[in-house]
Amino acid sequence: MEGMTHLAVAYFGMLLAIALWTWTVVQRSRRLDARLDALEAAQRGPPEQIGEKTDD
Amino acid sequence: MKPGETLLFLGFGGIGATLLLALLWAPSVSLEAFESPAAQRIFYWHVPAAWAAFIAFGALFIGSAGWLFRRSEQMWRLHVAGSEAGLACGLMAVWSGCVWGAAEWGTPWDWTDVRLNTFGLLTLLSIYVVLGRGSQPDGVETRDTFAAFGLYGFVLVPVTYIATRIWTIRHPGPVVGTGDDGSINGDMSLVLLLGAISFTVFIVGHIMASMRLTALEQRLERLQTSTDGGE
Description:
The complex is a heterodimer of chains A (about 55) and B (about 230).
Chain A: H1 2-44, H2 47-55
Chain B: H1 3-24, H2 43-70, H3 73-104, H4 114-135, H5 140-153, H6 156-166, H7 186-230
Helix pairs in contact in B: 1-7, 2-3, 2-5, 2-7, 3-4, 3-7, 4-5, 4-6
């Protein structure tokens, strides 16, 4: 029984490790998407500015 | 949710189910055949993790060759994803192997065993590629250097694969793909198969997600450069 308890702890530790790894990848992806959206929006600028530039 | 992330979560669910079945359902091995029968169940993690590591090292090899010979950005992303996935799966296989070795052999590592040492070298290679690439500025020379390591390091994969078929020192010989019925029963094979499929889905999902991450990072860098240049 002691062996099975150790095994269960080892399994849980390994599952936790890959859960953290998966979470890190997903969070990195979300953060990068958000930064890209913000940067692209900043480059486009507000609609009125675009209009002013076109008029010039 | 992106396709890579969907596969990651599906694979993770499958791995969780595999471990649950391995713990509660898979039959126990003979008490006479093993020093530590409970620890033998770590095999349901160890073998699929090593299998996933081989897939990742295969991706690293293809990505490295694609970068060196075709200068393809897509192939460079595959190199990056393959090295990271190879590192993670390599560490999972090495760590679980050490846990089993400590319980079964009384020592976590055997420096005379070919399989252990070639697989350990592969994992070290992926550590070197991942950490080395992170410490260098991105450029053609850096990419060429690490792609060369990815390309030539792959020679260790077939050596590792055949090691226990040629030199059975301490690591057990193959239990599947031996040409006969193998040494595991039907229920054990089923859990092992579920583990192998789950790890394959998980690692493919990770490679896809990681390739997308690298593409996003490159796009972000280009945008930042153009923004800085425009100011």
